[in-house]
Task: structure prediction
Amino acid sequence: MRTERKLTRLDRVFARLDREPERPAHIDVPRMSRHRVVLLAATLAFYGAIVWAVVITSWLVRLDWQVMFFRPYQQWSEIHAFVDYYVVLGQRGPTAVMVAAWLGWRSWRQHTLRPLLALGVSLLLLNITVGAAKYGMGRLGPHYATEIGSNEMWLGGDIFPSGHTANAVVTWGILAYLASTPRARRWLSAVSAVTSLGVGMATVYLGTHWLSDVLLGWTAGLLILLALPWFEPLIARSEAWILEQRDRWRARRGQVRTAPAAPPLGAPVLLTPSPADQEEAAARAPVSAGRSARAPVYLAPGPHTARSDRSPVTPAGSRRPPHPERHQRGPASPARPLTGG
Result:
């Protein structure tokens, strides 16, 4: 009796690495539900509350100064080297490359460009919103503070909100957003939350950001993830346009490959008569049919000879070879008078 081999966990992993034969018929695309809209509105209100608390120099600014004077990088100096490496998880360049590689494999496996396009749209929104807030409010960081207890706003800085924190929320959160199963979405949401939380606290530990910067960075990244379903129609249209351009390029490339080659130099070229020439030939056909057909004229091969070099022609039209003993006649002598004999 033949028994089937039981698949191990490693076999299942390699099975998932294979490319699917075609694009899945149903890809779960998050929609802007009522629950999501309420959560987006609450997060936006929290964003405004943080900005207002910093502008009016409230208790949040005093907490920022207390954490700065505590100097965590001196209190726990033994973890300084680890934090220096861990904070890289919030830098845009390295994290975008890692996540883009993973999503690129998913795009190849599922025959869809949506993962890469969703990442591109989210990073574009991140650059626009966070960049505008940074340069619009111009807050200085702890290392460049000018007055103790001030909010350091509109002084030419660019740290409010924290770009590292917002980038960690968006870059790692997009993996949970694009998860294919609810279970994977829950696990990836937890991993991205812990990662972004650690990156934000790492910037506070190193003294590069105020605590309020990190809070606003978390909020800014979450706003982008919550608003991303509004851009799904744009992502779908962009994917359809890119695939259409790809098909046109392939068709154009195939036509160029299958085009007939030009005839070599010196080869006869077959000319097809035009419709006008064909009509004219058909009109002349009855006239030519009534005439007597002439035998085709063939030219003898070989070099052409002059008339003086040709053999004489008899009245019958045959050519006789010259006789070796026959002398050529001279000019005719004058007629002699007849004499009687």
About this structure: Residues 40 and 227 are 7 Å apart (CA to CA). The radius of gyration is 47 Å. Confidence is low (pLDDT under 50) at residues 287-293, 295-302.
